Amino acid sequence: MMGMVALMLAAAGAAAEPCALQGWSNDTDPAGLRVHAGPALASAEIGRLPPAIHGGDSYAPNFDIVDVRGGWVKIARADDLDKPGKARAVFRGTGWVHASRVAFTVQSEVGRSAPDLRGKPIVRASGWLGDAGGTGQPIVACAGGWALLRYRLPGEVRALVGARSGEAWFGGICGNQHTTCDSLDETESRSGRSPTG
């Protein structure tokens, strides 16, 4: 699968394009989210992020997404600035977390064949995909401000073109857990832009 992703990136001219995405932890384990030295469970644990807290107001550690490999996401520059009250200890280095513990919002209705506006639309939905990451829309790869997702349209969202589930590149990725980044769309999904709302 990773070979196919590399070929897709090379064909789109994005092979060397670094990720420019942000997200947050959706891990509610009281022990915190384990950060590993490499993209594998057997890799050494090098730190932890405090747990996501859901309730009247939800908050979780934020971070930059700098790479995706084999179901793992490389994160950097984590913070817990959204949490009210007492500051929590946060691993601030660079490391790997399981992709199922990473969330962001997809504010695009179009999934494409490549991480570029010229990519052929694979799916066109009647609304945004909404929250991604975790069990919702697992991230497979990233290039600039684009995320390759194994998507599954939410129940209220119809597929106007293409299938209700599959794999496609989405732009319009919002890494702010407290807002919808209203002005962000896929035309702004390019290298060097880290959408924060």
Rg value: 16 Å
SSE pattern, N- to C-terminal = HEEEEEEEEEEEEEEE
Low-confidence stretches: 1-16, 191-197
What is the SS-derived class?
mainly beta
Largest beta-sheet characterization: 7 strands, antiparallel
What is the overall number of helices?
Answer: 1
Helix percentage range: under 10%
- What oligomerization state is this entry in? single chain
In whole angstroms, the N-to-C terminal distance is 32 Å
What is the beta-strand fraction?
35-45%
How many domains comprise the coordinates? 1
Instruction: Identify the overall geometry.
Output: globular
DSSP strand tally: 15
Mean pLDDT: 81
Name some characteristics of this structure.
197 residues, mainly beta, 1 helix, 15 strands, 5% helix, disordered N terminus, disordered C terminus
Written description of the protein model:
The chain has 197 residues and is mainly beta. The chain has one domain. The protein contains one helix and 15 strands; from the N terminus they run H-E-E-E-E-E-E-E-E-E-E-E-E-E-E-E. It has one helix at residues 2-11, and strands spanning 21-25, 33-36, 45-49, 62-69, 72-79, 95-98, 102-106, 110-112, 121-125, 130-133, 139-143, 146-152, 159-161, 165-170, 173-174. The strands form four sheets. Strands 1, 4, 5, 6, 7, 10 and 15 form a seven-stranded antiparallel beta sheet that branches. A hairpin with an 8-residue loop joins strand 8 (110-112) and strand 9. The longest helix has 10 residues, at 2-11. It is globular. The model is unreliable at 1-16 and 191-197 (pLDDT under 50).
